[in-house]
Design goal:
about 500 residues; alpha+beta; 3 domains
Amino acid sequence: MALKQFQQLKLSQKLLPQQILLMKLLQLPTLALEERIKEELEANPALEEETDADIIDEELFSNENSDENEVEEEFDDAGEIKEGEIKTSASDVEVEDYMGAEELDSYKYEISNKGQDDDFKETVVVEGIGFQELLEQQLGLKDITEREYTIGVYLIGCLEEDGYLRREIDLIVDDLAFNYNLTTDITEVNKVLKLIQSFDPAGVGALTLQECLLLQLERKPDKTKEVVFAMEIIKNHMEEFSKKHYDKIIRKLDINLDELKEIIAEIIHLNPKPANTDTKESNFSAIIPDFIITVSDGIPELSINGRNKPDLKISKDYTQMLKEYTSTKEKNSKEASGFIKSKIETASWFIEALQQRYATLSLCMKAILEYQLEYFSTGDDNKLKPMILKDIAHRVNLDLSTISRMANSKYVQTPYGTFLLKSFFSESMSTESGEDVSSREIKNILKGLIESENKQKPLTDNELCSKLNIKGYNIARRTVAKYREQLEIPVGRMRKEL
């Protein structure tokens, strides 16, 4: 096959690195953004955080040099200076240049609103021992051999956060042989595991939920009739109990409804996750709102969390080094200047991307506020208009993907609660009267129907669908099931109570 040469005209579209960086930053919530900024600060020495001293420095510099403009310089590969690339802070002057050693005392330039008579109390944070440490302490108090102690410590380390042991015993035997050169067998490991299962909190070290509940029931000091029946249900009728087939349990145990209620009350008081009794603070992350909406005299006002706009700058030391290296003609200096220039460019892109991110968040959230003005003014869910991504994209003249990234994982704090921003985006649905309503309004009505139902005979999805149709909402059963699942409400059978 002969080689051929030919010309081809091709149109393609590629994203610049700056655009990719902006898209990645745009979808980050506040907490994740802070972590990303920390990573960039560690990776790029040309990027710095502004300190209080920098702010004081700029104020002093601007007072003495009010007619000077911010310097913007650019260096090309040959070392020549051009305008418009490198953006430094407003000044290269240190605060020490204007103050002597005595004047730098913090009390002379930092504001303090406390008087001599004000009480100053430090908050002392005390951290308790962890869950695994608590178990290891109990293990150390037992009269066991060093071999059994080693196995016990390894088993405790294999426990998951909820207190269960989900790793297979035979794999643990292999781990002990490989990591500790300890030859053992399943029987010996199970013996030590039984010892751990006798520790507090009750139920720890269980392999399954069934075993966890049984361990707690067996530790009950008083074996009442309810406890005995509860053990029987957990041991032999767990499937019927989990599916709430109470009629079958009543028949098999030959008990009445009142007795079953007392037995279930005994089971409900058990802890399915024994490690939740950990003395350390629970592992949950606080929600940091990205947007804050306040209402003053019926008019909602928008503000963006200040943590979304960090004070970053390009290092003055790196800018100065770049000037020095580009002024020399040595080969090593040219390589060094290229490296420093790339770091400064990256820092400049990062700062610009953060600024664009903040501007985009402001623009989009302002459009959402204007679109849902009636809701944010009153907090009435019935005032919530159907809104999709395209509605906001048309208003702000941005792409749908940009709006999607902006709404992803962002929270807005309102006087009526803190909500996930994308929860305000909902499909429209027409009622019998022809009025468009949001799916969120239908979900609230669905939730109200389920809350007011007879718990002994909960409504099925078909019955819920019929009730919504009676209210004028033309909705299918599968849509009811979808909304119920989105509300994290189980099916009617699982909502049954005695």
